[in-house]
């Protein structure tokens, strides 16, 4: 073939390649998902590229298998796509779809641990959450063998996670939040508090959490408990007794329970002096603040539930017993 024909053939091939490239790029940049359309798709961990592409094609989220393959090659997406749940909102082109699968992580889910929950309740909530990957004993990663050992280790709050995140990742967030919060508040604690270490404040905060849900009462409840500690009075806090009973508690706290020896129930603050051996729940930041900045001016040593969520506070035992008869015994 003569040189000029070779040059012509090369030129035609170049033009064809350019035209094909322009066409492919045009298709990849064209909206595969129309405006106002929403595609929800779940990429499972271990899905092959073909399985992922089949899901995208099923939802008409890409221009076609060939174009999906070209886009994936261009973005090196085949090994970079992250598992998760995705909500793809049109208009969105094939290239953009794959960028979302690479850069995303998917839809953010929320897991709430409520104030006053025990660690067992936190683990149960994670177990029931369908968006969380379950592991054998997630507490082991943080040095805890059992839920009892980890009591008080988590800060109640709402934590965000992606679909398929392991349970220990969410636990790690709430454990780190508690450590950081306790360290922060311990550094600014009131002077003269009867605590040897931050864990003592954590234990008292857990009792405050269990005793009242009213923010305005927390500092005074903490103040009463601290006053009793200073006077070497027993705390006599019902929630600690109930915690020590565990699954044996049938929602009826009796005199027998309150008289139980510490060997039987080491959390029986009607029989022991000082703090119980550990926290009885996972307290909120507000209860931690109350434990470390309590109302130290209060002269009250007693409180009794009124029935509307609040408490009546008393300075003397006689006044306290009168309040008990009024609010708990119907005036008897």
Please provide a written account of the structure.
This protein has 332 residues and is mostly helical. The chain is built from 12 helices and 8 strands. The strands form 4 sheets. It has a two-stranded antiparallel sheet with strand order 1-4. The protein has a two-stranded antiparallel sheet with strand order 2-3. Helix 6 runs parallel beside helix 11 and helix 7 packs across helix 8. About 5% of the residues have low confidence.
Brief rundown of the structure:
The protein is built from twelve helices and eight strands.
Estimate what percentage of residues fall within beta strands.
Answer: 5-15%
Helix content: 40-55%
Q: Output the strand order for the largest sheet.
A: 1-4
What class, by secondary structure content? mainly alpha
List low-confidence stretches.
8-12, 14-25
Largest sheet: 2 strands, antiparallel
C-alpha termini separation: 118 Å
Secondary-structure element pattern, one letter each? HEEHHEEHEHEHHHHHHEEH
Question: What brief labels describe this structure?
Answer:
two-stranded antiparallel sheet; 8 strands; 332 residues; elongated; mainly alpha; two-stranded antiparallel ribbon
Describe the secondary-structure layout.
Blueprint: H1 3-29, E1 31-33, E2 38-43, H2 49-58, H3 65-75, E3 84-89, E4 92-93, H4 94-103, E5 108-112, H5 119-128, E6 158-162, H6 167-187, H7 198-211, H8 218-230, H9 238-245, H10 255-259, H11 285-292, E7 302-305, E8 311-314, H12 317-327
Antiparallel strand pairs: 1-4, 2-3, 5-6, 7-8
């Amino acid at each position: 073939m003569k040189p000029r024909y070779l040059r012509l053939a090369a030129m035609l091939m170049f033009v064809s390649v350019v035209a094909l490239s322009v066409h492919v790029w045009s298709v990849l940049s064209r909206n595969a998902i129309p405006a106002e359309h929403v595609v929800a798709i779940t990429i499972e961990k271990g899905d092959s590229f073909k399985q992922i592409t089949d899901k995208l094609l099923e939802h008409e989220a890409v221009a076609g298998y060939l174009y999906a393959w070209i886009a994936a090659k261009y973005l090196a997406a085949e090994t970079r796509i992250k598992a998760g749940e995705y909500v793809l909102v049109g208009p969105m082109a094939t290239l953009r779809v794959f960028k979302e699968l690479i850069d995303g992580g998917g839809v953010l889910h929320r897991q709430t641990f409520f104030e006053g929950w025990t660690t067992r309740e936190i683990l149960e909530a994670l177990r029931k959450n369908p968006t969380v990957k379950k592991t054998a004993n997630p507490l082991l990663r943080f040095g805890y063998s059992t839920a009892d050992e980890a009591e008080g280790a988590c800060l109640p709050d709402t934590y965000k996670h992606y679909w398929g995140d392991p349970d220990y990742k969410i636990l790690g967030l709430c454990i780190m939040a508690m450590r950081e919060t306790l360290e922060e508040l311990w550094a600014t604690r009131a002077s003269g508090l009867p605590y040897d270490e931050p864990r003592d404040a954590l234990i008292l905060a857990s009792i405050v959490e269990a005793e009242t849900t009213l923010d305005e009462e927390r500092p005074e409840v903490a103040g009463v408990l601290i006053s009793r500690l200073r006077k070497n009075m027993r705390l006599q806090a019902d929630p600690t007794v109930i915690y020590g009973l565990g699954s044996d508690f049938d929602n009826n706290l009796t005199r027998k329970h309150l008289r139980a020896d510490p060997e039987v129930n080491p959390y029986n603050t009607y029989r022991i002096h000082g703090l119980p051996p550990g926290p009885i729940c996972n307290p909120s930041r507000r209860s931690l603040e109350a434990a470390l900045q309590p109302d130290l001016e209060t002269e009250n040593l007693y409180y009794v539930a009124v029935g509307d969520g609040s408490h009546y506070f008393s300075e003397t035992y006689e006044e306290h017993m009168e309040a008990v008869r009024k609010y708990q015994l119907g005036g008897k």
